[in-house]
Amino acid sequence: HIFYDKKIAQEVPGDEWNGYFFRITSGNDKQGFSMKQGVLLALPLLLTDVHSCYRTRRTSKRKRKSVRRCIVGPDITVLSLVIVCVCQGEAEIPGLTDNVLPKRLGLKRAAKIRSFFNLAKDDVRKHVVRCEVESRKKEGAKPYTKA
């Protein structure tokens, strides 16, 4: 109930999780209509490929789709949140903030890696993130790495 009457992109303190602040990013209601930022009434809008809530199959196509308003109410079934701020010394949320997953893939082009880390041409190889892949075609094949 702490999210009721809050808009998209508004920051809310975590009630069950003390010390955490969340930002509301989106949500869906019971009929499956998604929330759209800036819409204060539930109505059909003419959407293009640059808008959220609609993905065009062809370029420059438009479609009138129903969207939900941007204010959270009791008819919302799914609410998407982002952790914005964590105060020091607070308890971790089990399964969400207690384990840190390493970044699986990184930049591929050597020029982008050099510009990102400010490196010379000789120092690029140690910053390439590689992952080990097993072959799906042959069983028992030796695993290989790819960038």
From TrEMBL:
So which domain of life are we looking at?
A: Eukaryota
Q: Which UniProt keywords apply?
A: Ribonucleoprotein, Ribosomal protein
> Pfam families, per this entry?
Ribosomal_S6e
Q: Which InterPro entries match?
A: Ribosomal_eS6
List the molecular function annotations (GO) for this entry. Answer: structural constituent of ribosome
- Tell me which Gene Ontology terms the entry assigns under biological process: translation
Q: Which GO terms describe its cellular component?
A: ribonucleoprotein complex; ribosome
To which protein family does this belong? Answer: Belongs to the eukaryotic ribosomal protein eS6 family.
- Name of this chain's protein: 40S ribosomal protein S6
- In its UniProt entry, the species of origin is given as Sphagnurus paluster
